[in-house]
Amino acid sequence: MRGSVLLAGVLAVVVSGCIVVDAPGPSSDATITIANASNYVVTEVRVTHVRSSSWGPNLLGNDVLYPNEQITVRVACGTWDVLVSDEYARDCVIAAVYLCGSDQVWTIDDRTLRSCGF
Q: Any residues with CB less than 8 A from the CB of 36 and at least 6 apart, and which?
């Protein structure tokens, strides 16, 4: 899978906090836990329907996701593009992630961020 986010079935991470945020969509039927296992501070996580021309709101709100923190987000069934930004305003996009009726974990780590040029 390309981009800065690696989907994983199970993740053992030191958790400092957990927030639940609704992503845009008509119904919430899946959750995604975004775990920051990198050395970077994640400042934005945005999703949009595939082929949409604009990103949804920052799912972190006014917060940031420090290393070893995670956030849980409810998303509507569908195929999403995901944007992740770090404290240096570097962006990384993972395209066409299918999410429907299951709970998943996305792990952001240094290796996958390097693949985006971090």
A: 42, 65, 66, 67, 68, 69, 70, 108
Classify domain 6-114 by CATH number.
Answer: 2.60.40.1120
End-to-end CA distance of the chain: 17
Q: Indicate the pairing of strand 30-36 with strand 91-99.
A: unpaired
Amino acid sitting at position 88:
Y
Residue 4 has pLDDT above 80, yes or no: no
pTM for this prediction: 0.68
pLDDT cut 70: percent of the chain above it: 71
Which residues lie across from 78 on neighbouring strands?
A: 99
